Automatic annotation (TrEMBL):
This is ABC transporter substrate-binding protein. CDD domains: PBP2_MidA_like (cd01004). The keyword Cell membrane does not apply. Its main location: other. The keyword Translocase does not apply. Residues 1-20 form the signal peptide. Keywords: Signal.
Length: 301
């Protein structure tokens, strides 16, 4: 995948801090959960065989030091009390439990996570990082999710993302949906002699979602886990419009050649096999991006 797709979206959002730290606030339209999903945290047991494979430094400290950039809801953000929460957090906590250690989250600028992994400051980088061929030259990745672009529409009011000419489409400002994806679709409309898409940028994703819920726009385009969570929070007001596209794997970054990549892979695969992983994705409404097989270095481009 190129920087025009998911790889670029995550870096751009993290660098510019465009997403709001709180949960979606869809005034008068939703039942917002500022502290995350209503379901209880998934309980996970230690697996001694896997815990024994951790590097000695991590076993002795009893913790995984995890570099993370926020906010990027629902994957990683701060709740009303300032605690770092999210889908990524719940899954990493579960992996840490399998390995008999605690995950310690340290905030970082997105662009500093990989250099800090290389320098040994963090054991793991976890921040909705797309596993790409370019990044695999710097670090290794353990894959745990697939993400792409996902459109949403009002319930029962279908929109075709490939033929949205003349429609109002909400996006979060500065994202690739705003700068590349929707403009490219609009240009195609114009080239075919059809009306351009009326692109409506909003500073925060919550505002873009709110515009759709209230019927101020016909559709919205956002990253697939962001759209999935917005739908979950909307109390049935909005739904998906078309399939996820431009998908690529998320990965946890570790130093190049580090044995930790394989240990994390075995731990998350254990959770995939026993159903705990899927339970966590469903808690956050992001199960559409769930995978059944984790690999080390699974970049598609």
């Amino acid at each position: 995948m190129s920087d025009r797709s998911f790889l670029g979206r995550r870096a751009l959002r993290a660098t510019l801090g465009a997403l709001a730290a709180g949960a979606l606030v869809l005034t008068g339209c939703t039942n917002t959960e500022e502290t995350g999903p209503s379901a209880a945290k998934v309980q996970v047991d230690k697996v001694d065989e896997l815990a024994a494979q951790l590097p000695d430094k991590i076993k002795q400290s009893g913790k995984l030091v995890v570099g993370v950039n926020i906010p990027y809801q629902p994957n990683e953000y701060k709740d009303a009390s300032g605690r770092i929460v999210g889908f990524d957090v719940d899954l990493m906590d579960a992996v840490a439990s399998v390995l008999g250690v605690k995950a310690e989250y340290v905030e970082s600028a997105f662009e500093k996570i990989i250099p800090s992994i290389q320098a040994g400051t963090y054991d793991v980088g976890m921040s909705s990082i797309t596993d790409s061929k370019e990044r695999e030259q710097q670090v290794d990745f353990t894959t745990y999710f697939n993400a792409g672009v996902q459109w949403a529409q009002q319930k029962g009011k279908p929109i075709d993302p490939e033929n949205a000419c003349g429609k109002k489409v909400a996006v979060q400002a500065t994202t690739v949906e705003h700068t590349d994806e929707v403009p490219a679709k609009s240009a195609k409309c114009v080239a075919e002699g059809k009306p351009a898409i009326d692109i409506k940028p909003f500073d925060e994703q919550s505002a873009a979602t709110n515009a759709l819920v209230l019927g101020q726009v016909d559709a919205m385009s956002a990253d697939s886990p962001v759209t999935a969570y917005a739908i979950k929070q909307s109390n049935g007001k909005i739904e998906t419009a078309g399939p996820v596209f431009d998908s690529a794997p998320y990965g946890w970054a570790v130093p190049k050649g580090a044995p930790l990549a394989a240990v994390l892979q075995k731990a998350v695969q254990h959770l995939m096999d026993n159903g705990k992983y899927l339970e966590i994705t469903k808690n956050w409404g992001v199960q559409e991006g769930a995978i059944t097989k984790s690999v080390v270095n699974g970049a598609v481009s």
